[in-house]
Amino acid sequence: MPELVDLHIHTNHSDGLQTPEDVINSGMRLGLKAISITDHDVVSGVIEAASYAEGKDIEVVSGIELSVSKAKDDIHLLGYFIDTLHEELVETLERFRRIRQERGRKMVERLAAIGVNIDYSKILASAGKAAIGRPHLAEALLNGGYVSNYNESFRKYLGLHGPVYVPKAKISPAEAISLLHRAGGIAVMAHPGLTNEDNMIEEMAAAGLDGIEIFHPTHNGTDRKRYRRLAEKLGLVCTGGSDSHNRKGRYGDIGDQKVPADYLAMMKNAWHERQKH
Ligand code: AMP
Ligand code: ZN
Ligand code: FE
Ligand code: FE
Asked: Which domains does the chain have, with CATH numbers?
């Protein structure tokens, strides 16, 4: 059995339900060599995980998942090996989280306008300091009996083309890529099969994209093959992970994706190359 890693995991610092400590414990139990926490717009989870993992037999790779916009509003970019104390990154993420809070309020107001009443103050109270995302609203819709399962919240209300969708902060793919580079990291196109904007990948590669996420619960074998070829053609590295949120929905569970540790080694090579520029 090759050594395995999981490089796409969310915690309760954004829209996941597991704590950073839970993630480390699960990773250790599964014998993973490394994990990366890639919360939306926040790095406190990965900082906490790294300190909890000190002296333990598991590597923590610092990560982040940013939302970037262009033609469509929800393209996700993963950053790896970022400096979690990088001032510009930290300030930008703070701004994104403030916008997320206001956006959540707007979506709750839009829901109320169509007769769907969920209590935003309760959502904020239970989310604590977490970066607010649509999964927090999806859970409230489910608890309020407005939908019969989590995914239905997105189909009926919260999805990109749903009646209450509000976009997030605007940052272009090129701006996000260069921010991740300035923060000492590499930039990876997340779950391209889900995003379905393949034509943008080449453009993003020209803007300095370093990798493509190949292993993801929404990718089948054909997707993986297609994106692996594209990565080879564009000279990008391949990455992968479960996108675990510890929620029921379209996510996997930690360790599901069986990503060999060799991929992490190749990402590190790309990162070292990037440092030379
Ligand atoms: P947000 O960051 O608030 O835009 O929410 C995005 C997150 O919501 C994604 O990372 C997923 O966790 C979840 N999500 C988005 N669309 C769907 C969907 N159609 N079904 C289930 N979860 C979704
Ligand atoms: Zn998420
Ligand atoms: Fe994503
Ligand atoms: Fe994710």
From this structure: 4-85+172-275 (3.20.20.140), 93-158 (1.10.150)
